[in-house]
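User: Sequence in, structure out. Go.
Assistant: Echoing your sequence, followed by the structure tokens.
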Amino acid sequence: MNRLFKTLLRGFLILAGITFVYSSSNSPESIASDAPPVYTYRVVNTYPHDRDAFTQGLVFENDVLYEGTGLRGHSSLRRVELETGDILQIRDLPARFFGEGITIYGNKIIQLTWQSRVGFVYDKDSFELLKEFSYPTEGWGITNDGKCLIMSDGTSILRFLDPETFEETRRVEVYDNKGPVTSLNELEYVQGEIYANVWRKDRIAIIALQTGQVIGWVNMKGILNSGGRDNPARVINGIAYDAKNKRLFVTGKLWPKLFEIEVISPE
């Protein structure tokens, strides 16, 4: 009996060891062995931006910019004229909510809130509130790939949600060669990849949609000169993509400008 027990135990330990080696060799940290390339940028155009807007979400569709802003008592959903920065339409959130990221899905705008774990669904044209939904984490950024909503919560995790039920369908951990990439903030779906601001970092992560691997970094240092960054809250946060004309826009919290940029590949 003892001999049989020892044989079974030995077999279990061998199997456990094989499983551990397999899972370790396929962990995100071991898969991403090479540092992702670092891109730079070129400013193509500069536009006015409301310097009182605490930008949390940014979307561009049909020549119109949509913006979600934060801070309790100041959070809003806006339709903005790109060329002038004028606010064409606005809906203020109740003062108890801290607005976060936004995305457009069909004829609806979806907006997250930070710590309230409540999201809002609006009619895209009228800004009428259609429904509310809940989620179990903080809300930071949100985008979509035409099939799923994709949201960040300030960690290294991206959650994929059903756009009708808002139930989580899958998740990926975002990582590069150094390990998990945390503080993922505002998101934008760009030609099959996810562009993500990293909180308090002057860089944008380019993320593979299926695996979560960072396949590139965009170094955004210097895009807003020091004269516009005298407040430490004025960090880069806001990415919008014009799919029709293939234009990429970026701005930040309380920034006086919005920039159209071209991403430059490293030599």
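User: And one key feature?
Assistant: Helices lie at 2-25, 28-31.
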